[in-house]
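Methods — Computational structure assignment.
A single polypeptide chain was analysed. Its primary sequence is given first, followed by the predicted tertiary structure written as structure tokens.
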Amino acid sequence: MKHGVAIFSTDYSITPAELAVAAEDRGFESLWFPEHSHIPLSRQSPWPGGGDLPKQYYDCMDPLVAMATAASVTEKILLCTGICLVVQRDPIQLAKEVATLDQLSNGRVVLGVGGGWNAEEMADHGTEFKSRFRLMAERIAAMKVIWTESKPEFKGEFVNFEPMMAWPKPAQTPHPPILVGGGFPHGAKRAIEYGDGWMPLGGRGWDVLDTLPRFRQMAAEAGREPDSLGITIFGADDNRDTLKGYQDTAVERTVFTLPSAGRDEVLALLDQYAKIIG
């Protein structure tokens, strides 16, 4: 089982580049960056984590830019979005950004995606909350066409473009892995429909392990090879028994969450996690 770490990078936390070097040196397989373009102050949508929205949600840096700085100082660690709010991004431009980053990092990008929960935030981007998952599926389908075809074109409900040239293509073939975030059963169904893996969030009052047999059964019934859809537990518990349970059920990866703090606090916690997985 592989292990990664995630952080809301801010202007008051350890830099993405320094964290990437430290994580790679300590044997972590991947580094993950969440995304919020902004937080509307109306605060109508409740945070799924419960209570007040943590400060780092307001302050987080752009994940793709953070990943680019991390790529420039590392060689092996995977650079990942956890998650990229595809419903708030132009798919043609996002396809180019991801492909560019995959080329510059020598094929180390993983695109974790999700539909998001903040209705006011996506409304500012012109996205309807009710149709966000249909929009996400279509934008991902359009990006796959851009990444894999020399003269891509697309006609859909939300995305339409005539034949064009769009380069560079990603270093990875056919494209960087797409991991679909979300709960069970709806997020799991979306992962089976168009993802390369499922990324459920741990620590939200449900036992991910209980759902894995049902997820794999659903995949098989949908004609997908269950073993081809890796499971990434995002926000994983650092309890050794819990981690052993993940490993015993063939979870591909766990991702620990780091605080948006300075280097001393983050590196100490990184050392603690490294001892657990070592």
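Note: Residues 17 and 69 are 6 Å apart (CA to CA).
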